[in-house]
Design goal:
The chain is an alpha+beta fold and 357 residues long. It has helices at 36-55, 59-75, 82-102, 109-141, 161-170, 175-187, 191-199, 203-224, 263-279, 300-313; strands at 10-15, 22-27, 146-149, 158-160, 231-237, 240-246, 256-257, 288-292, 318-321, 338-342, 346-350.
Amino acid sequence: MFPRATGVTYVRIGRMYKADRQWVEFVGLKPITFPGDEIGARLRKIKPVVEVEADKLEGTSQAQLKTALEALETGLIPGTEPTQWAAAAAPALAAFRRVVASLTIDLPNREEGLIAELEELAAQILKDGPAWNGARNWVVTRLPVFIYLEDYPKLVGHQNIAEYLARQAAGSLSESDRNFEKMCKVADLSPRELHNLHAANDHETRNQLANRASAIVTTELRRLWKDRALKVRFSPDANHLDTFISDPNSVYDVEVNLDDRSRGLKWFFSFYIAFSADTKGGSAENAILLLDEPGLFLHALSQADLLRHFSADFNNQILYTTHSPFMVPTENLDAIRTVSIDQDAGTTVSNNPTGDS
């Protein structure tokens, strides 16, 4: 696609605040080979031979060949920029070829070869621009998807399935509706099936599906959330599906709707639900996740759980900001960057902690 980039192994890409504006740099890209001195030397070898051929002609033919030679000299003058030279040289060489052919002049093999070399050089340089653009566009199309999460995904604990299905059919799903879909995907539940079973008064099958889904999510949440052995229960109630969470090890094993749980638990639960669905065959499977203060609502032990979750359950690259020392991966200090804000330098990100005690 871009022959001049042979040997380039590193590409630097920048993106402006407007997402549709990027710049691409092929690091170590060699400049276009442009032998300016050789071009003049070739022309000096070609010119006397053509002048001899012109002297053999008479009248209009002689003037035509001399004019073509002058135009060739002008077009081949080496400039400072290879592309500009090629843009002038290519038509000058083509025009000279046409005049020589029309006058049925056979140039010696050496001069013929020199002209062919100049034509090839101009053609290669003219191809370089489109090749560079093609390679740049190829790189841009392979930029990873970035998904930014500044707060926990909205997920309601009291979902009206009939209304959700109506919004789905109308193509007007809200953010919480889409997160409800993700929860059902993780729990292996089908809202349509639950709705149909309710319409058929098959409450036993409906409850069995909800119980199985409860067990799936409970098992996974206990693996991730070491703070307490929580239990999740999905409860079908007429057109609704309620999500209850309880603590079986507490003195009072009281089920509390997800909507009424602590913000930290809701963050962890909805984060797990959203990204478990999205990163396993979903839209975020190969995305880079950008998280802003992911442990903000969690205490120290739960922040440690979150770090383990990042490490064990995601193939994605994850970039996150934090002010919490408990969100610093001490086993992977090389991954840490310090963000400094200076009135003159602005915001800088580096692995140099100078100036930050």
